[in-house]
Amino acid sequence: MNPNRVGLSTISTLVCCVLAAEAHGAVVARVFGRVGDEEVAIYTLTNAHGIEARIMTYGATIVSLKTPDRDGHFSNVVLGFDSLNPYIAGIPYYGATVGRYANRIAKGRFAVDGIAHQLPLNDGPNSLHGGLRGFDKRMWKAYIGSGTAHNTLHMTYVSPAGEEGYPGELTVHVTYRLSEDDSLSIEYDATTTAATPVNLANHAYFNLTGNPEHPILDHVLTLYADKFTPVDSTLIPTGEVRSVADTPFDFRKPHAIGSRIDSGDEQLTLGKGYDHNWVLNADHGKLPRLAAVLTDPGSGRTMEVLTTQPGLQFYSGNFMNGEPAGHGSVFAYRTGLCLETQHFPDSPNHPSFPNTILRPGETYSEKTVLHFTVSKPVGEHR
User: Fold this and answer.
1) What is the pTM of this model?
2) Active-site hit among 39, 163, 164, 340
3) Mean pLDDT over all residues of the chain?
4) 343 is annotated as an active-site residue
């Protein structure tokens, strides 16, 4: 048995995993709970500076991500739960890998090579994040990286043909790497047996204050995007690609998220805040490029988002409604935000959008990097 490759059916398997972790000195695993007869494992990755990411096999989900503030105090900067129950009870998408198609597909319908397909509807008249049981509600297999990749977690899921209405068997690999430059990278690869739409993303809710009860409206955001895709009343793109100039969607210079969110702009009214796709300026390519910078002025925490993806969905937590977070607290309205690097919503129905159809013999490959730093208070110099 390869001690780095981890099955998830027995406690003894996890013991093997822990032994492998001790050998590498970076990754530790334990049982987080059960889904039916299957054990859910949670893996802890830690770098030399104390950055810690905890990722579980249910939904290939980031459960927590601890980073320091400017005073060196560590706190969790993603919203998550301290037990498995809320995840399997239906509280949606917190930290999960979403697919087979992240974001919305209008009326759950698309056609590939002239063949029509119907997906289940789980977001009003549309299909959202892969349907009723997307990748966020599936068990993933995992194994720890070896050699120089010791701070690496590989995860795999095979989606059978017809699952949630999608054609083709899709084999998906997600790799989490925690580096010594205080970056967490997420790499996606997928292959298929038949032409199918593919759009993979992570759905972490960020709150850089480290306090899950603190609103995110004071966070300062920069988005390297000159354009965005307006939506209709069901949050499906209209097909237009619109300039952000002279609108509340212009984050080309840093703005506090709350500074214009209640401006009365028609698009903000439709989304009940920000829930839109930005068209990133840099070309979609093999190397991640800077897409966004998020800063919490109070703590000094800053997160740079780099990606190979062509779009970024910024969601300002408009539908958060008090999900129980544990220890008596809740995730209240706008106490988390998402920066989902991905392809555009409803791309299979918009030929002018970047292609999302994966075909046999091709490999879907995308990467996103979250790089964490701290800033000094305004007016303080070296």
Assistant:
1) 0.92
2) 340
3) 91
4) no
